Amino acid sequence: MIKKLSILLLIPICGLLCSTCSTTGNIVKPPDVKLKSVAFSSIDFTGLTLMNNVEVKNNIALDIPLPKIDWNLFISNNPFVNGTINSAGTLKSGGSTEVQFPVTLTYMDLLRAITSLNENNATYKIKMTAYIPVPGFGDLSWPLEHEGKLPILRFPNVSLASVPTVIFTYGSIPNIPTGGRIEFVLNVKNNCNVALKINDLSYSLKIGNTTLPKGGVVGSPSINAGATEKITIQLPLALGDITTIGVNVLKGNFKYSITGNYRFGIPEFPLLNEVGSSFTL
Length: 281
Known about the structure:
It contains 3 helices and 18 strands. By secondary structure, it is of the alpha+beta class. Strands 12, 13, 14, 15, 17 and 18 form a 6-stranded antiparallel sheet that branches. The radius of gyration is 34 Å and the shape is rod-shaped.
């Protein structure tokens, strides 16, 4: 009788131990924490914002607090700024969420802090450590890291590659022009460390005291970082324009001036609105 009783008592004890082992196994299984994305959420000629997105998945059988995240930002391998994100709330068992936080930089602060910063060495690296306290086990931590290129935006330079040249067209009467064009070439130099695209360029040419009709160029190839693109301008001339130019030339007044405006964008950063400026040559 005693032997039979012992066997009956052992069965529930073993069951309890197995249940405890199973539960403990679920508790110690750590959450998954990874750096889902780092991207520029806004950018302009004063500065930029880097948006960081940390993904957390709760694999354990208990609710857990959202992580505390310590972060450090390095510019060209130099420590620049750091901070701590203290997230409020909890994440239920089996749930997942994303913790986002922005880091905003101004070019003025960057150049003050790192005098050697230029388009060739402009890189960034953000290092993070995410902490989640699990009851009975202390703080679990996950090191996270991302690095990339820091865009340096500067307005392009517009200069004259060739002086305006008058090209006449002739009809049936020899040496009597019936029309023509003025042709000149502009150099557009990209001073950014990323490619840019001229979306619109308008110009006005004045010869002597005569301002010719305005013209424009819509669209251009992307100009690589640090590269110069030549844009050929052809301005049609009516017979009246030719007469006016001829009078100015006869008076020895072939002085010219070119004024214009341009607007451009950065294909790599579609969030950046078009920006523009003017030029005088």
